[in-house]
UniProtKB/TrEMBL annotation:
One protein family per Pfam: PCMT
Domain of life: Bacteria
Compartments it resides in: Cytoplasm
Signal keyword on record: no
HAMAP family assigned to the protein according to its UniProt record, in alphabetical order: PIMT (MF_00090)
Catalytic activity, as annotated: [protein]-L-isoaspartate + S-adenosyl-L-methionine = [protein]-L-isoaspartate alpha-methyl ester + S-adenosyl-L-homocysteine
Stated role: Catalyzes the methyl esterification of L-isoaspartyl residues in peptides and proteins that result from spontaneous decomposition of normal L-aspartyl and L-asparaginyl residues. It plays a role in the repair and/or degradation of damaged proteins.
Family stated for the protein in its record: Belongs to the methyltransferase superfamily. L-isoaspartyl/D-aspartyl protein methyltransferase family.
Protein name per the record: Protein-L-isoaspartate O-methyltransferase
Record-linked PROSITE patterns: PCMT
Originating gene: pcm
Enzyme Commission number(s): 2.1.1.77
Keywords: Cytoplasm, Methyltransferase, S-adenosyl-L-methionine, Transferase
Organism expressing this protein natively: Flaviramulus aquimarinus
Active site, per annotation: S64
Length: 213
């Protein structure tokens, strides 16, 4: 698990790339600059670790494009100590970014292979989520609600109702909605029954799978 000066240099270049694409939140940029993304990928992909691209990982999933991670994280406007629910732990890279920002992270993954791998791997890097859960992201995590923010890291064909109901008043749900191409959508809870919805352009994600078990 090496993190060399070369890796650190490549990370700073990556930070500049996403800055030029419009990410302005310094805490988010700092997190991207600090987290060794190459360790979240197979070593054969080392050259690709600091390009601003999504990349395949186990179980037919991907590690999201750094810009996308930064974009979704910036929308959440995380403050230290915020309680954040992540749907789709995946490689754990987004989880690490959330931890780096001081969030209390609860993360759900439905691919057992990824869940096992990431549960072991994140603590080795010093990132400890409050809870990593193997389960169905569509139903959220009722017993830990309400959340300051919920982030969905896979394309959802529709917005799962339980996720909206598990937000605090003032809380934000950031979710890519759509089938082939997704529109990054943010719901801010304004009251018990009222939500404000904003859209932020098109992105591409692997699909959010509903638990068929």
């Amino acid at each position: 698990m090496k993190d060399t000066f070369k890796h650190q240099g490549l990370r700073q270049q990556l930070v500049n790339i996403i800055k030029n694409k419009g990410i302005t939140d310094n805490a988010v940029l700092k997190a991207i600059g600090k987290i060794p993304r190459h360790l979240f990928m197979d070593s054969s992909f080392l050259d690709h670790a600091y390009q601003d691209k999504a990349f395949p990982i186990a179980a037919n999933q991907t590690i999201s494009q750094p810009y996308t991670v930064a974009f979704q994280t910036e929308l959440l406007q995380i403050k230290k100590g915020d309680k954040i629910l992540e749907i789709g732990t995946g490689s754990g890279y987004q989880t690490a970014v959330l931890c780096e920002l001081g969030a209390k992270v609860y993360s759900i993954e439905r691919q057992n292979e990824l869940f096992k791998k990431t549960s072991k791997f994140l603590p080795k890097l010093g990132y400890r989520a409050k809870k990593l859960i193997f389960g169905d992201g569509y139903i959220g995590l009722e017993e830990e609600a309400p959340f300051d923010g919920i982030i969905v890291t896979a394309g959802a064909p529709f917005v799962p109702k339980p996720l909206l109901s598990q937000l605090k008043i003032g809380g934000r749900l950031v979710i890519p909605v759509g089938d082939d191409v997704q529109v990054m959508t943010m719901f801010t809870r304004k009251g018990p029954k009222s939500f404000e919805q904003e859209e932020f352009g098109e992105f591409r994600f692997v699909p959010l799978l509903e638990d068929k078990n």
